[in-house]
Predict the 3D structure of the following.
Amino acid sequence: MQVFYADQFVLPLPEGHRFPMGKYRLLREQLAQHVQQVRLMPALRASDGELALAHSPAYIEAIASGRVDPVLMREIGFPWSEAMAERARRSVGATVAACRAAFLEGIAANIAGGTHHAKADRGGGFCVFNDAAVAARLMQAEWRRVHGPTPLQVAVIDLDVHQGNGTAHLFRDDPSVFTLSIHGHKNFPFRKEVSDLDVDLPDGCRDDDYLQALAVAMDDMVQRFAPGLVIYLAGADPHEGDRLGRLKLTWDGLEARDRYVMDWAWQRRIPLAFAMAGGYGKRIEDTVAAQLNTYRVAVGYWQRWQNRKS
């Protein structure tokens, strides 16, 4: 299974910064050591033209040059640097590459990504560019060149604990992309956007209630939309050990969540690309363990796709 990464994902940050940047290096090491079916592939940087499918040229130029309003940089949460700008491009490029690989092999992943708070002209919440939005629109453009004017239908299934407000805003008038977000009602962002389907969960939500909400939401979506591609944001932050999550999913609950989404896509033979999105465990090892479990589930479905082709 192809998994896309870049050394630039591990951005040098000031001492004491609250974002757990080291999780990307740790996850990559754990995948290389424990999940032999994974092929770690370098992520290319997204071009200005690709980013412009979802972002304004002025915003792209401001991030590239460092001429960003300080207020906007505070909303993003990272200090500007050339390394930060490069990391943001590579994060998008990794999801684009994962989508292309998913069309070939059924399922593929971005070891980072899930930057769902970024809107057309601003970032926020540690998100600079919206990788899922750029990838969805680029896959639609590539689809049109081969298949003609009928649009590729893309479902963005966002199971990060925080609402995907940027993705919802970008696709609010686009019937070819379905945005589903299951998130904590009282969690960031405190002013939510309107997705095609939002499921607000109370603080302390546990496995059974979460999984029931997921099943109902997926049934609702399939009544309204028939995707040809799924982009799945597999956030680790609903875990009970997360500093920012406020939900109470166990290891088993997170694994059941991943299995439900991936099985849903497999049963319908819909290619699925996933990104890791949020994870802020009280112990960084817990976040990495949750993410590693997502990959173990994914490899099983990747093997099903390969057996189908043989």
About this structure: The first helix runs from residue 22 to 34.
